[in-house]
Design brief:
Blueprint (H helix, E strand, L loop, with lengths): L1 H23 L1 H16 L7 H31 L5 H29 L2 H12 L2 H19 L11
Length: 159
């Protein structure tokens, strides 16, 4: 029972870390926004299981690396609050890792999603369902606010 409680706590800590990344990192919110639309449009495509798996791996990799980048930045700031070339290298390298993954994911996404016939059918599908088209547009506004409006209670630096 004690091991089960410990496992439950570890999931709570992980969840807390994810929430803090979302609240405090605009880039994490950008990645989640992109993932939302990638997943929303997925049913319009006849992806194979392998292609779907690639999409899920790309989403997981980019968001996981963004969380690792956040952890590296926080650890470096804690250890070296003053500017230091090695601290900058660690933070820049971690950010670079996220950028590499995001570029790879974008390339995979363009390869999989850029199909003019499917894009036309998506347009026609939404055009024939005005309410859903409006909701789609409103979702873009909501995501824009989610991404760019700072969250209240920005990170407690001592947590």
């Amino acid at each position: 029972m004690n091991r089960l409680r410990s496992l439950g706590r570890s999931f709570c800590y992980a969840g807390r870390g994810i929430v803090l990344c979302i609240k405090n990192e605009r880039n994490m919110r950008i990645h989640l926004c992109a993932a939302f639309y990638v997943l929303l449009l997925m049913p319009f495509y006849g992806f194979t299981r392998g292609e779907k798996a690639l999409i899920f791996v790309c989403i997981g990799l980019v968001t996981a690396l963004e969380a690792v980048n956040t952890a590296v930045e926080a650890a470096v700031d804690l250890i070296s609050p003053e500017k230091h070339p090695l601290a900058g290298l660690a933070k820049d390298a971690a950010a670079g890792a996220v950028l590499f993954a995001a570029i790879g994911a974008a390339a995979a996404g363009i390869t999989l999603y850029f199909d003019t016939a499917v894009l036309k059918s998506i347009y026609e599908w939404f055009a024939s369902r005005p309410l859903l088209a409006v909701l789609f547009v409103l979702s873009a506004g909501a995501w824009t606010a989610f991404v760019f409006v700072p969250c209240k209670g920005k990170a407690d630096k001592n947590e």
